[in-house]
Design brief:
The chain is α+β, with helices and mostly antiparallel strands and about 350 residues long. Helices cover about 60% and strands about 10% of the residues.
Amino acid sequence: MSITDIFIIISASLIGILYLLKLRSYDIYEKEPFYKLLLMMILGGLVSVFVSLVIYVFIPVEHNLFDAIFKIGIIEESSKLFALVILYLIIKKDFNEIVDGIMYISAIALGFAVIENISYCFNSEEPFLLLFNRSIFAVMGHISFSGYMGIAFYIHKKVHKNYIGILVSLAISALAHGFYDGVIFHYELSSFFQFVFLGLVILQFWLLRTALGFSERRFKLNEALFNTANTTLFLHCCHCDKNIQSKELNFRKIKAGQCEHCGYYVFNEESIYQLLKYFCPIKNHKRFIKNLPTHNKILTLDENNSIRFNMHTKHLSADINALSAFLDYCNTSDKERIFKIPVIGFIFKYLGLRYMK
């Protein structure tokens, strides 16, 4: 093995670890142990690549759209699912929320992509340029193909027998993988590659946000969540219509103050985004605020006038219990709305999300 080969292995592996760290950052409610994700990336990648190579011995493949979908897509995605099934005992104790399905199948897909990158670069005249390109497109591509299977497998193991969901997820993953490869194989379709790639990545982020919305590990908003810091915040209470100073109360990235006059919690615009991101992850946070009616300076968001938003200062003041109920209602509405979206709603429903409460 040459020095170049060693550098290829080290570089590809480090890139995989960086992706794994970034992937783990999206697991906002209960992060999986990093060593478990790393173990699944290594073992899952080895198992899925080995199974794929064995199958390819018996099934010849040509570089066309049909084979990309019905051979390459099915073979490689079913190999990743097989790796998750046989390695499940390693993660069984940590596999306790729907997002974990995406995390672990994505770790396996990442391992598959790392091994594939190393293999391709070994045979390239410009290995590091190829590694750079594949580390963007092929790695993100493999991750974006497989999340559907992770959700379906979690539901099957922890919620409800979900054989149909697993088959649906495998079909979607194979189709996504096949279209990705197919537009590369056909020169006349290559101009569509960026659209296919971006579409698959966006769908995967949408799937992740939806899974977060169905997570059972999200805390319920209450006063006990917040810690008091030494920092002073300068805010505007929408209930009293006064500027206030308050000790910073923080929970994760959410910062709040408490009005000394009315006792309401007060949040600035950035913390409103963080509130929605944590408690209503399906929602488009910036669009939600942008779409609020602008005819009044002060908007009341609940029937009891206990949640108020100032359109000018972009501050929110609320009774914490009323705000908790409002955010729960928004998340429940978002979960119901997702099933009504044409095609996407049907897919999410038959992945097994209809079994989630």
